[in-house]
Input
Amino acid sequence: MIISKTPYRISFFGGGTDFPKWFKENGGSVLSTSIDKYCYISCRYLPKFFEHNYRFVYSTIEDVKSIDEIKHPAIKGVLQWMKWTDGIEMHHDGDLPARSGLGSSSSFTVGLINALNAMKGKHSSKIDLANDAIFVEQKIIKETVGSQDQIAAAYGGFNRIDFFGENSFSVNPVIMQKNRIEELQNHLLLFFTGISRFSNDIEKSKIANFSVKRDELTRMQQMVPQAIDLLSDPNKNILEFGSLMNDAWHYKKSLSKEVSNQKIDDMYYAALKAGAIGGKLLGAGGGGFFLFFAQPERHSEIKEKLAHLTYVPFKFDFTGSAIVLYQPNGL
Output
């Protein structure tokens, strides 16, 4: 039995510039952190006395005889890419809902690759995990996804991720004093809107607009070093981070009409009226999780104003995807 534990992520700035269509020509940068909410993947070799060769338990259950019969695109893509032949049983458990803007799909792919490699006795480096997950999602499954989620899930931590060239990237941890990290964390609130959505169509609409949204994307990319300078200098007012988030949200909304709607806008302005300085929908947009920035003394009022949403307390994570149980011969 093998169990992998892979964090979800929050992206603050630069989302959109991590798509190959953008960064191959313009470079790209994002500022993100992994959080203490996780995707768990357990795998074991399936004994041969079952009628099926493969069993997968996630939001549904699949019992199939061949990989070609698998319906889950990531599971099928990973097993095809790895040329997997052994019978296997896999269970997925997640701390938060899928299709909600926290990079859950990439956390799943990263965690599955990590677990399957461990079953074969292979250690997965962070860079290999990230690159392999990017390849599977973009080339095998052919999802319309960027490249930041896979890296955030594999590496963990609070990082600036830069993209350049064909498929190159660098990961640089943001250096902050411990009390600055705590100060930032204490200003953040996370709410689930109750709206799950498939990001594919939203991301396609953004990509289609890249050529006419160059100024917006460039500005969103420039916010990454600006935010890091702010966080790295304890003498600067942390509230500027919230104002920057507010600017980023308006730029993000301008990339596609699919990012927001009246219901989402009403949530955002209700939070601002209750004391939030800034915020954003995480991921592609259209639903999922709302992240807000506000002074701690205003949190109660914001929670009351958004009582119809699910509040999710969280902390930053610094571990990345890991194997937490390794019993290669266990059943």
About this structure: Residues 47 and 87 are 7 Å apart (CA to CA). Residues 214-232 form the longest helix (19 residues). The chain has two domains: 2-174+317-326, 178-314. The radius of gyration is 20 Å.
